[in-house]
Amino acid sequence: MxxxxxxxxxxxPVGEKKIIEANGRSIGVYNIGGEFFAIRNTCPxxxxxxxxxxKTAFITSKGPGNFDYERDGxxxxxPWHQWEFDIKTGCMVVDPKMRTKxxxxxVERYDVSIEENNVYVHL
Length: 123
Ligand code: FES
Prior knowledge:
- The chain is mainly β.
- It has one domain (4-122): Rieske [2Fe-2S] iron-sulphur domain (Rieske Iron-sulfur Protein).
- Helix content is 0%, strand content 50%.
- It contains no helices and 9 strands.
- The chain has strands at 4-8, 17-22, 25-32, 35-40, 55-63, 66-77, 84-86, 102-108, 118-122.
- A 6-stranded antiparallel sheet has the order 1-9-8-4-3-2, with no helix packed on it. A 3-stranded antiparallel sheet has the order 5-6-7, with no helix packed on it.
- The radius of gyration is 15 Å and the shape is globular.
- The two termini are 12 Å apart.
- The mean pLDDT is 93.
- The structure holds FE2/S2 (inorganic) cluster.
- FE2/S2 (inorganic) cluster is lined by residues 43, 45-46, 48, 78, 80-81, 83.
């Protein structure tokens, strides 16, 4: 399977991201725990560069004074108005009907003689 070449897998360490321009689209490619995910770098609210926002966790509470941090690093917070989106799906945390586009990502070895995998986004 082929797609738009993002770069070598080692260029995006666990917990990091790379923003690419592919066919006129800005896309953020994230490495979450060794798996790669890609979302459009455009917030569906007012068009901010979503992938320039900080990564955070999904915060839950069982009651006053209690906070649990789950899925640390899997949520991106828009830099303009702080709406939060699931990097794995592109869906807004509090209203999953609101979303930015997500893309399939594959990791492939282009040349079997080279011990390096490439990351591709499928537009
Ligand atoms: S532009 Fe992203 S929350 Fe407003």
